[in-house]
Amino acid sequence: EIKDGNTIVTISDNGIGIDPKYHEQVFDFFTRLRPRDSDKETGMGLAICKKIMEHHNGSIDIESEEAKGSSFSLMFPPN
After folding, report:
1. Quick one: what percent of the chain has pLDDT higher than 90?
2. Among 62, 73, 48, 49, which residue's Cα sits nearest to residue 18?
3. What global pTM score does this model have?
4. What are the counts of helices (DSSP H) followed by strands (DSSP E) for the chain?
5. Residue 3 belongs to what H/E stretch?
């Protein structure tokens, strides 16, 4: 999508979703929302994505609800 000259790419899944009260926290380094023994996540993936987007003067946003999946929108400004 092109909006106000910015390119917006949205990626969605049908996973477990994320409670809205945690939407800001998921972009912090080493933040894990599930118990450590439940999977192999490190708490770094979305934080790295946010840093990359910021490095390119862009942004990343989340829309999600528990049990309904998640959508991540990456906004790339014009060159």
Report:
1. 76
2. 62
3. 0.83
4. 1, 4
5. strand 2-3
